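hiii so um. not sure if this is the right channel but i have a protein structure encoded as tokens and i wanna go backwards to a sequence. like what aa goes where. can anyone help
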């Protein structure tokens, strides 16, 4: 048996060393990245794929566009709201990763089947919004937590891969939903089977390491002093109960609310807006590109954020997301396909990437001890953003809603200027 030791660095962070990933898993820890990414590929269909079937659902007798968008908002509330409870239960040994993933597999499949066969919006709310949302949240929180636990030395890049997969997975579904609109029930049933099989298969293999586990290399205390990886280590470690005593928390929470509102608005309204002006083919291409740009942007930003500064990249991304809304408005109204696709790409690279940056910002601002729970609290801002985004899509059912969305994204970019590390005087902070 290897000798297990507990170490601390100059910032008070703990490290458990002595056990390799192969000894704990029987294989390299990279295996966890691909397991988590595969599960997220499957789970993300319910969010990014929903926009593709909004025009089809709107043609169901008695179903209103506002009711359908509200179903997506409730789904997002359930999906984001479960992140903190999942982390809290897991840290206390009450919800092991395999159990959370297995439950998520069943609930995700139930949500998709509901969308294919529901005859009333109430059924959609219960089956898709509540059950499907909770299932996706279980998978999302478990997979992100696994990356945080297995890659404490490379959290940003690995979180980018896993978070990007959540968007990438819906691209084939969006294309098929546009090509086979009459086959929606069959397509959703087949998708449900695939989603269940993928997530359940990952559930059987996904494991967490011991608390504070650290890989054999790099040496943790040397790594802690490497400014390439630790540009701004947290002043101290904040517990969840302490989080909202910091002004930075409120500012970061509002940034996530606004970014989520704009992204959820685009998902809910983009297909309907584009199809009404330029046809269903371009609408499908726009949604597929939105998902692909979001996924690719998350991977890229996950790799760059630690080097260039997360706050700086977050502000740039939100600026791009805000500009994108005005481009979408102008291009859609004037039927400029190239301009529309450019706006979609900017929107995906902009507002869709804040969640990847959120993982690193939580560690940078609030420390390591409760990182999964603190991430869950701040990620729950997506639930508030869903309400705002749904309101934009239903109360302002005109192209001018893109203008309002653009203003919200630009406001979030301005708000990034208030993001500073708790406990560190601004005069001591390096440039963002």
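sure thing!! here u go:
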């Amino acid at each position: 048996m290897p000798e297990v030791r507990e170490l601390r660095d100059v910032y008070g962070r703990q490290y458990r060393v002595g056990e390799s990933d192969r000894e704990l898993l029987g294989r390299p820890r990279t295996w966890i990245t691909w397991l988590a990414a595969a599960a997220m590929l499957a789970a993300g269909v319910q969010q990014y794929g929903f926009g593709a079937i909004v025009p089809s659902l709107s043609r169901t007798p008695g179903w209103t566009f506002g009711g359908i968008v509200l179903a997506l908002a409730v789904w997002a509330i359930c999906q984001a709201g479960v992140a903190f409870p999942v982390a809290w239960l897991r840290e206390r040994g009450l919800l092991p990763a395999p159990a959370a993933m297995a439950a998520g597999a069943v609930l995700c499949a139930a949500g998709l089947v509901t969308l294919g066969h529901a005859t009333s919006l109430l059924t959609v709310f219960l089956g898709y919004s509540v059950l499907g949302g909770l299932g996706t949240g279980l998978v999302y929180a478990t997979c992100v937590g696994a990356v945080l636990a297995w890659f404490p030395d490379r959290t940003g890049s690995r979180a980018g891969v896993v978070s990007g997969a959540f968007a990438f997975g819906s691209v084939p579904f969006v294309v098929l939903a546009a090509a086979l609109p009459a086959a929606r029930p069959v397509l959703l049933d087949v998708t449900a089977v695939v989603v269940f099989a993928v997530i359940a298969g990952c559930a059987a293999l996904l494991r967490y390491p011991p608390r504070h586990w650290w890989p054999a290399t790099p040496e943790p205390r040397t790594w802690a002093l490497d400014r390439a990886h630790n540009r701004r280590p947290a002043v101290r470690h904040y517990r969840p109960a302490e989080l909202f005593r910091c002004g930075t928390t409120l500012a970061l929470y509002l940034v996530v609310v606004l970014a989520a509102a704009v992204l959820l608005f685009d998902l809910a309204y983009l297909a309907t807006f584009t199809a009404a002006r330029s046809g269903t083919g371009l609408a499908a291409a726009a949604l597929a590109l939105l998902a692909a740009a979001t996924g690719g942007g998350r991977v890229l930003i996950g790799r760059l954020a630690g080097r260039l500064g997360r706050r700086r990249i977050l502000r740039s991304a939100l600026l791009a997301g805000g500009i994108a809304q005005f481009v979408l408005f102008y291009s859609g109204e004037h039927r400029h396909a190239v301009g529309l696709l450019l706006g979609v790409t900017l929107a995906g690279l902009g507002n869709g990437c804040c969640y990847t940056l959120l993982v690193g910002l939580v560690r940078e601002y609030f420390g390591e001890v409760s990182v999964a729970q603190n991430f869950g609290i701040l990620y729950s801002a997506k639930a508030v953003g869903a309400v705002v985004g749904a309101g934009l899509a239903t109360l302002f059912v005109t192209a001018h809603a893109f203008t309002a969305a653009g203003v919200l994204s630009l406001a979030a970019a301005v708000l990034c200027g208030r993001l500073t590390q708790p406990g560190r005087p601004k005069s001591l902070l390096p440039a963002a």
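oh and The mean pLDDT is 88.
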